[in-house]
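Discussion board: Methods & Data

I've been asked by a reviewer to show the raw model output for two of the constructs in my manuscript, not just the figures. I'm not sure how much to include, so I'm pasting the format here to get opinions. Each protein appears as its amino acid sequence followed by a line of C-alpha cells. Is this the kind of thing reviewers expect to see in a supplement, or should I convert it first? Here is construct A:
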Amino acid sequence: MNNKHNFWRWKRLQESFFTNLLSNIPTRVVGSNLRNLMYRNIFARIGSSVYIEDGVKFINTWCIEIRNEVNILQGVGINAKGHSNNRVCLGDKVTLERGVDIRAMKDTCIYIDEGTFVGPYVCFAGPGNIKIGKWCLIAAHVGIFANNHIFDDPTQYIENQGVTRQGIVIEDDCWIGHAVTILDGVTIGKGSIIGAGAVVTKDIPSFSVAVGVPAKVVKSRINRQLVNFKDDAYPSL
C-alpha cells in the first residue's frame, strides 16, 4: 500500500514540477517546443507536431493521451483528476480552441477522434463516457454533459440522490451549432447537424437536421445520394 501511495505521490510531484515550470513560457519564444518535448515525461502519450500554447492547464497528466498534430490553445483545461482509470484522448489533428474545458472523473473516458474542431469555451463533463467521432465541428459555448442529477425523491436533497452516467456519443462528421446543450444518454448519428441553441435530450438519427428545445428533427439529409467516406481523408459532401 505504501509503495502504491509513494508511486502516485511521485507522479503528482512530477506533474506539478513540469507544468508549473513550463505552462506559462510564451509560445512565441520556445514555449510550445519545450512543452512538446518535456511533457512526454508526465503524459500517457504525446505524439509528433503537437502545439500547446501557454496558459493551458492539465491535471492527472498520466491519464491524458495527445496524438499527432494536435493544437491546444490558451485557456484550455483538461482535468482527469480523481481516479487512475480516467482517460482523456485527443486523436490526430484535433484542435481545441481557447477556453475549452474537459473534465473526466470517476472512471470516465473522454475521447475526441481525428480531425475534430472544438470551438471556444466548449465544456465536456463526465462522469459518464463521451465519444466524439472524426471530423466533427463543435461551435463555441457548447455543453456536453454526460451526467444528470436524479431528483425522483422530493424529500431528499437533490445532491444526495446521485447522478446518471449513461454517456454521450457524437458520431463522425457532425456539426454542433453555437450554444447547443447535449444531455446524458444521447447518441447523435453520423452526419447530423444540430442548430444553434438546441437542447438535445434524445437520440438523433444519422444525417438529420435537428433544432429547438428540446431538439427535434426537422429535416433529413439523405434525400440525395450519399458520398462514400474514406477513413483516411477529410469527408466531403
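Construct B, same format:
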Amino acid sequence: MRIVEETGFKVYSPSALKHFKAFGAKVDEETCLVKVPREKAMELIGKAPSVVTLCGQDERQDLVLGGKSVYTGTGGTALYVYRHETRERRLATLEDLKRIARLVDHLENIHLFLLPTYPNDLSVEVVDVNRFFAGLDNTRKHVMGGLYSLEGALQVVRMAEMVAGSPDRLRERPLVSMITCIVSPLKIDKQYGEFAVELAERGIPVVCPAEPLCGATSPVTVSGNVLMQTVDSLLGVMLTQIVNPGTPVVMGSVATSTDLRNLRYLAGSVEMGLANAAGAQMAQFYKVPFYATGGMTDSKVLDVQAGYESAITNLLCALAGSNFIHDSAGLMEFALTVCDEKYVVDNEILGMVMRAVQGIEVDEESLAVDLINAVGPGGNFVSTRHTRRFMRREHYFPTLSDRDTREEWEAKGAKVTWERAAERAREILAAEHHSIAPVVRKRVLSEIPGIVDKGNS
C-alpha cells in the first residue's frame, strides 16, 4: 500500500487514466503517474469477488477459484513444437493448437485450457478469434487466453456468446476468460489497459498477471520480487473494479528469477516456485483468486531436468493454495516450445501433485484403531473391507509410471517414459471431435469473419 500511495504507477491507457482520475486518484496527466491512497486502494480491492467460477462447455469441467482451491492448466504462447522422437523443433501452426486442445481434453489432471501456442501460419489480424475458436471447438474445458488486438477480443466475446447461447448466458457461465498483463515494474501500458477497460465493461473474467524478474524488473530478492508482483497485479484488480465493480478478476503472477550472467528469463528455477507460492498467500490475504505459474522447464528436451523442474515448481504452487497454476503442463525451453509427450508426462506429475494437495485425512475411520485391534499382531490387512473401501481414494494410481518388475517391463518392450507418453498421446488423438454443437459451429463459421477451418480454408 505504501508503493501504491507514495511511489505510484504509470498508466498509458487513456481510458484507464480517465477512470483512475474520476475515482479520485492523484493523477499527473503529463507524466501519466497515478497514486491511490491506501484506503481507496483497499476499498477497490474489496469490491473484487473472492470467488470466480470459470465454466466449461461440460458443467463437470467448471472450476471454482477462491480460498485455497487448486486447479491446473496449460499456458504460454510458445512459438515452437518439439518432436521428441526426432529431436527436432518447428514453428507452431493452427493445427498444432487444435491438436493440443484435443489432447488436453482427455488429460484428467489438466483442468483448464489456456491457449499455449501462437499459430505462425496466421496473420495477427485473425489470430485472436482463431486461437479461441481452436480451443472452444476442441475441448470441453474452460478456455483462457491472451490477446493481440481489441477488435480480436470483441470478436472472441461475440463468438463465445454464440457458443454459450446468449450474452446473458455467457455472463452466467463464462466459457472464456482473457489475460490483460501488467508490465513490471508499476506500469499499465496503453494496449492492455484498453483491453482491461473494455472487458471489465462487458463483465468478462479478466486475469491481471505481472512478470517481475529478480534483479531485472524487480529487486533481486525473492521477497522483493513477491512485493513487486503483488503490487503490479493489484493495479489490474483496482482498474477492473473502478470500471465495473464486481467484475470477475484474478490476480496473477508469472514472477521468476533472472540468470544474471546474461539477463535471460528462467522458467524452471526453484525461486520461481517460491515466488509464485508466496504470491498465492498474498492473494489469500486480499481475498482475491490467484493465477500462479509453475510446471515449466529450461530444458530443451524431455529429460530428467524437465521432470524435476516441472514437478518442484508445480508442487510448491499447489501446496500454497494457488487457485490456478498456469503453464503447469507441456512447456519447455524457457516457455518457447511445447511437446505432446510432455503434456502426458506432466499430467502424471499433476496427478501426484493434486494427491499431495488432498493431504492426509485423519479421523476415526482412517486411523482404523478398531481394525488394528481386530487384526492384531502378526496379521495382515490385505483382504479387509477397510482396504477395499479406501485403496483407490487414498492412493494415487498412475496412468503412465512403470511399476512392473524388470522382467515384466522387458516383456512389454522395455519402453521408457517418453515412449509410453507418446503411445498415450497417439491413442487420444486417433479420434477427432468437435466440442461445439454442429448447428452452433455452422453459425459461428458463417457469422464471425476470419476463422480458418478445414471446411472453409
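Answer (T.O., handling editor elsewhere):
This is acceptable in a supplement if you add a one-line summary per construct. For B, something like: The mean pLDDT is 96.
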